[in-house]
Amino acid sequence: xxxxxxxxxxxxxxxxxxxxxxxxxxxxxxxxxxxxxxxxxxxxxxxxxxxxxxxxxxxxxxxxxxxxxxxxxxxxxxxxxxxxxxxxxxxxxxxxxxxxxxxxxxxxxxxxxxxxxxxxxxxxxxxxxxxxxxxxxxxxxxxxxxxxxxxxxxxxxxxxxxxxxxxxxxxxxxxxxxxxxxxxxxxxxxxxxxxxxxxxxxxxxxxxxxxxxxxxxxxxxxxxxxxxxxxxxxxxxxxxxxxxxxxxxxxxxxxxxxxxxxxxxxxxxxxxxxxxxxxxxxxxxxxxxxxxxxxxxxxxxxxxxxxxxxxxxxxxxxxxxxxxxxxxxxxxxxxxxxxxxxxxxxxxxxxxxxxxxxxxxxxxxxxxxxxxxxxxxxxxxxxxxxxxxxxxxxxx
Length: 396
Hints:
The protein is an alpha+beta fold. It is 42% helix and 22% strand. The strands form 2 sheets. Strands 2-1-3-9-12-11-10 form a 7-stranded mixed beta sheet, sandwiched between helices. Strands 4, 5, 6, 7 and 8 form a 5-stranded antiparallel beta sheet that branches. The radius of gyration is 24 Å and the shape is globular.
């Protein structure tokens, strides 16, 4: 457990990918425990053929990982942006997940489909500025407010699609956080808002008359890739709500339970969420989001913040009104990993590849989460949850 000074040879970092760079890494790896069979799995011929296409997405590239991809659907969505019957690809290694979401999708489509609406969008970056005292922090905020239109122009000059829609100062004595909120077009926009905010910060530092002790492009206030109350209340990506009213017949025949049983379980689950201090109250948004994000080339780490929100189940006649609201869906139909070969194929299956589809993809994400909530609540209410996992995972 003690530190030691044994010699080691660092790997040379490589950003530009070629067959030679891949072979170089594998030569080094196979001096250790890795074997040729491992290389054959990760650096397969198709991966090698398309290797240069991964250069914008990764460094020190050695190959690609293959994950099982299942599909659910048709999932009928009656949304402001997503319209029609969708087949949703989900990449996961968890047996029973796709079956569960598929059951929820079948129940929702049988009941006329899921209504969805993108309610709000605003990807945020929160730079922090440090001053000697509270007085200077206040003068700084005054300067920022006075020059906000100019700062908006500076930030937007870095991007064709991003728009800075708000700068909201938060003061904690001598430290000021600026909540810089952007719309990002069809992209998820994480890198877009970082570059724009960095330009804004340099403009502030170069021109502000108030002495700035230090500054950081992100002060860890935004909730980037972590669950936060700020994200829950104001949202950090795209805020989407989705709902469906299930008929009693669908609940009994498709979900193998009753509306009352689902309501009874829902009350207990809601109490459990509150007592345990969850941010929001939901069953398993992360399952569906992670599988969809990986399949379609999203930043999978954003599931940490995207998987907060609220699930509601309420009586409607002899059926059930079921809804989800997710304030932090971070997805894009362009940029990031969406242009990689497998992820392009998954977006093509959805019919949502490319410009003009970002909002629709966010609504599909919320509708998919609703399918998962319906199915798991029904399984818990009927006492089928464990049996399903035994049959589909352990005993299959």
